[in-house]
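Thread amino acids onto this structure.
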């Protein structure tokens, strides 16, 4: 059965290249998926005004990014750190992640159909979603005659490099958007979000770079080009999503400064009241 050999159409095309090793096909397939997602994300960012995004669209993007973020950090972590690839499990897990992202896109498009482009996107997403479910069901039923598992050491070093690259790239994108915001409107919500993101993301980059330089001997380089490339793009994906961490960190810092300022101001008023009361008591005596 062909599905015992292929995970999807992309994998079928990759298998036609005899120069690609059997144990590299899955890594290449996942890498191509990440590149496609990053390309779509970049094109949308470049060709759409940030102020045209609805709250629902922003939330959908964040949730879709979070799904792949958790997939990389929780599911793919074993392969990245230990090098152990349980081929069938990884294929099923990858397709589950892909189908969840497609489902989020389908739900959003159904609720926000406004143009023919969105209708076409809905049809394509739906077809891919059904194919993913079909592949998942078939793969779960496969017990014998499947590719052997394998071990590929290293990859954490490339992941760290990719993370730093993605984290820096997304902050450059943020600076690109900031120049188009209304600087004369101090209550602009987008301006506040971007400013907090810049502050938090800058800290994330500095701390991450310092941690990497201090412990880089503990991170292993992968000599396998397919795994090394995959981990590089996994790192880029996580680095791009780290802008959410930057926003949260920037918000926490703002709240902390506000709370500290409020407490100091409160203490200052209390000291003034205390001194005034003492002065009144002395004057009365």
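Threaded sequence (285 positions):
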């Amino acid at each position: 059965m062909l599905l015992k050999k292929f995970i999807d159409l992309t994998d079928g095309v990759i298998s036609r290249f005899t120069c690609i090793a059997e144990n590299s096909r899955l890594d290449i397939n996942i890498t191509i998926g990440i590149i496609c997602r990053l390309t779509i994300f970049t094109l949308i960012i470049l060709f759409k005004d940030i102020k045209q995004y609805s709250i629902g669209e922003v939330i959908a993007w964040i949730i879709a990014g979070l799904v792949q973020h958790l997939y990389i950090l929780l599911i793919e972590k074993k392969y990245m750190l230990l090098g152990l690839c349980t081929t069938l499990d990884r294929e099923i897990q990858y397709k589950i992640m892909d189908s969840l992202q497609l489902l989020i896109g389908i739900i959003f498009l159904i609720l926000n159909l406004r143009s023919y482009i969105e209708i076409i996107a809905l049809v394509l997403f739906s077809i891919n979603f059904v194919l993913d479910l079909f592949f998942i069901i078939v793969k779960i039923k496969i017990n014998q005659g499947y590719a052997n598992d394998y071990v590929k050491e290293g990859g954490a070093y490339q992941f760290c490099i990719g993370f730093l690259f993605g984290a820096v790239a997304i902050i450059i994108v943020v600076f690109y958007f900031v120049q188009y915001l209304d600087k004369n409107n101090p209550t602009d919500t987008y301006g506040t979000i971007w400013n907090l993101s810049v502050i938090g993301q800058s800290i994330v980059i500095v701390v991450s770079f310092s941690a990497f330089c201090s412990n880089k001997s503990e991170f292993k380089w992968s000599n396998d080009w397919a795994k090394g490339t995959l981990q590089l793009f996994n790192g880029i994906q996580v680095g791009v999503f780290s802008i959410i961490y930057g926003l949260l960190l920037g918000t926490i810092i703002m709240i902390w400064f506000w709370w500290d300022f409020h407490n100091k101001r409160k203490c200052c008023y209390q000291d003034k009241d205390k001194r005034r009361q003492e002065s009144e008591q002395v004057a009365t005596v």
